[in-house]
Every structure is written in C-alpha cells, then in structure tokens.
Amino acid sequence: MGGEARAETPLAVVVSAEWEGMEEISIPVLRQLYLGRRTRLQGRRVRCVDLPAGSRARGAFTRSVIGRSERAVERYWLRQTLAGGPPPPRELDAAAALAWVAREPGVLGYLEWNERAPPAGVRVLAIVVNGRALRPGDLGYPIRVPASPSP
Prior knowledge:
Order of helices and strands: EEHEEEHHEHEEEE
Number of domains: 1
Structural class: alpha/beta
Shape: globular
Number of strands: 10
Low-confidence stretches: 1-5
Radius of gyration: 15 Å
CATH topology: D-Maltodextrin-Binding Protein, domain 2
Helix content: 25-40%
Oligomer: single chain
Strand content: 25-35%
CATH class: Alpha Beta
CATH superfamily: Periplasmic binding protein-like II
CATH architecture: 3-Layer(aba) Sandwich
C-alpha cells in the first residue's frame, strides 16, 4: 500500500486511585453510566465527566463507547432533560477533569493516553473485552482516537 501506518491514541478510562476494588469495566457498563441508565458501581454512586464537546477525544469516546455521534448524544440528553431524567455527565477540560477524578472516588473519566504511568491520584481501568482485561496500548484495546490526517 506504500503508506506508513498512522498511530492511534488510546483513551484511558480513569478513576481515583483511592477507589479500592475498581480495576476494570466493560463497554456496556460504561455506556450505561455515560447515558445515565446506571448510577452506581460496587455500591458507590458514580458521576461521569466528559471532555469538551467537539474535542477529538470526546468524539472518539462517544463513538467507541456510546455507539452514537456527539450530535445524537446531545439530542438524547436534551430529551432526558425535558423528560425530567438524570443530568448529563459534567463537561470539563482535561486538567479539571483529572483533578476531579483524582480527588473524589466515584468520579469516572477518560483521557488521551500518551504516558506510561497514570497521573498522580488516578488509576487506569482495564476494559473487559471478550473476557480479557485490556489496558491502553494492548492489542485490541477498544477505545481509541483516530490518527490525525497528514497535512
């Protein structure tokens, strides 16, 4: 084919390092949490944080986890709000999202994974796929930001 393979960036799902016993999660459970259809894990109330609308990371997360476009998810949350349903995930920039996740067990977020070690106070969850716990960088890891097209 003549071209170089472009690297994709994994998106790591993160929780507070203090959230004991929380080591892995599946895409269906993530979807339920991010759509407000589930609010508890391991007996703990869970709050989700989203990166800014229109960001590449949020678009990739929404497509990979929710299976819909950002626009479709916006319409979903509008209908939920009008029907008196649960509130959507809180939207924060990456630094504020990580700070919230790190200081409060029960907050679930995601970030572009460009590092080998998680930021202080944060634990990266494995994603369970077909019974296997995969981490960012593992072959078959399901949540990725596509590579930017070359200029």
